[in-house]
Amino acid sequence: MHHDGVLVARIIVTGGDFPWMHGRVEALPGFDAIRPLFTESEATGAAEDVEAHRRMLAATSLTYPEGDPVAEYWLKIFDDGTCGWRWHDDEPFDD
Hints:
alpha+beta, four-stranded antiparallel β-sheet, 6 strands, 21% helix
């Protein structure tokens, strides 16, 4: 995951439950700048909070391990360092 063009976290896949993938987050320098985007969403319990999703997309970008950008994604990062996400290869999700 990138913020302002800088790699700020790596996501390590640990499993999945279609359409969601599960993993753990390796936070790197710079991650603290975007952490509030995820803690706010977790605190409210809003699993499908569209406004929080839009703020997260505006502040971050996600790439595949090979470096190609992910077209659309919904990423939840939890305080325990785990995460869940889903993505689209070609087009944005319907709101």
